Amino acid sequence: MISETTLDPEEWDEVGFAFHQAVDQCMNNMKSVRNRPVWQPVAKESVLRQNVPVPTGERSLYELNSFFNESILPFSNGNTHPRFFGWVHGSGNIAGVMGEMLAAFMNSNAGGRDHAAVYIERQVLNWCKNIFNFPFESSGIITTGTSMGTLIALKVARNTHAGGDIQKLGLAGMPSRLVGYTSSEAHCSAAKAFELLGLGHDALRRIPVDSEYRMDIEALKHRISEDRMNGLCPIAVIASAGTVNTGAIDDLKRIADICHNQDIWMHVDGAFGGLAILAPEFHGRLTAISLADSIAFDFHKWMHVPYDAGCVLIKNEAEHRKAFSSRGVYLAGLDCGLAGGEPWFCEYGPELSRGFRALKVWFTMQAYGMDRFAELITQNCNQARYLGELVKSNSGLQLLAEVTLNIVCFRYYDRGVPEIELDQLNIRIVTELQLSGIAAPSTTTIKGHTAIRVSITNHRTMTEDLDLLVEEICRLGNQMRGK
Ligand SMILES: Cc1ncc(COP(=O)(O)O)c(C=O)c1O
Question: Which atom of ligand 1 is nearest to the CA of 240?
Answer without folding.
Answer: 1
